[in-house]
């Protein structure tokens, strides 16, 4: 729950920031000179990119959460079998072992979104965030029945 609150607070701060930057862009455009209009347009593009990124990130998190709830209802969430260091961090060798199992499971059933979801968690535990995100995107696409690139 704390992560959700933090996400929404940061998203709200970003929206306020986008509004402030956008207003500055409008003020520059209103000056009417070639230089200020050019800068104003450039300044307006930045909040648009930010809003697009925030929207896609929010949709990704929402869809991943829906998959997690569905998998939990089915009893298919992976059991936490990872060893931890005395400081509470995940043991790297343990994460690699679990990852190998999840990868094999996914190779046996490559069209099942559930295996890709569990693989995404294993990637995350192994601290490979880019691959975790791609695996989760694939799980979402498979669940939604969208075409998936090989």
What labels would you give this structure?
mainly alpha; Membrane protein; membrane; transmembrane; 150 residues; transmembrane helix
Can you write the helix and strand succession as a string?
Answer: HHHHH
Structural class: mainly alpha
| Beta-strand content bin | under 5%
Question: What coarse outline follows from CA principal-axis ratios?
Answer: elongated
The average pLDDT is: 91
Number of strands: 0
Largest sheet: none
- Summed up, the domain count is 2
Radius of gyration: 21 Å
Total helix count?
Answer: 5
Helicity level, as a percent range? Answer: over 70%
End-to-end Cα distance, whole Å, is 35 Å
Low-confidence stretches: none
Keywords: Membrane, Transmembrane, Transmembrane helix
Protein name: Membrane protein
Organism: Streptomyces natalensis ATCC 27448
Transmembrane segments: 7-29, 35-55
Spell out the blueprint of helices and strands:
Elements lengths: L1 H30 L2 H41 L17 H17 L4 H13 L3 H16 L6
């Amino acid at each position: 729950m704390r992560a959700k609150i933090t996400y929404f607070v940061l998203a709200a701060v970003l929206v306020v920031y986008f509004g402030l930057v956008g207003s500055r862009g409008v003020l520059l455009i209103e000056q009417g000179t070639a230089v200020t209009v050019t800068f104003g347009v450039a300044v307006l593009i930045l909040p648009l990119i930010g809003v697009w990124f925030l929207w896609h990130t929010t949709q990704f998190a929402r869809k991943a959460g829906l998959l997690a709830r569905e998998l939990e209802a089915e009893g298919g969430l992976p059991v936490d079998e990872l060893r931890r260091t005395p400081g509470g961090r995940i043991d790297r060798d343990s994460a690699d072992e679990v990852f190998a199992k999840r990868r094999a499971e996914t190779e046996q059933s490559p069209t099942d979104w559930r295996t890709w979801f569990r693989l995404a968690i294993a990637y995350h535990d192994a601290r490979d965030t880019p691959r975790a995100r791609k695996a989760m995107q694939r799980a979402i696409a498979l669940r939604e029945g969208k075409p998936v690139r090989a």
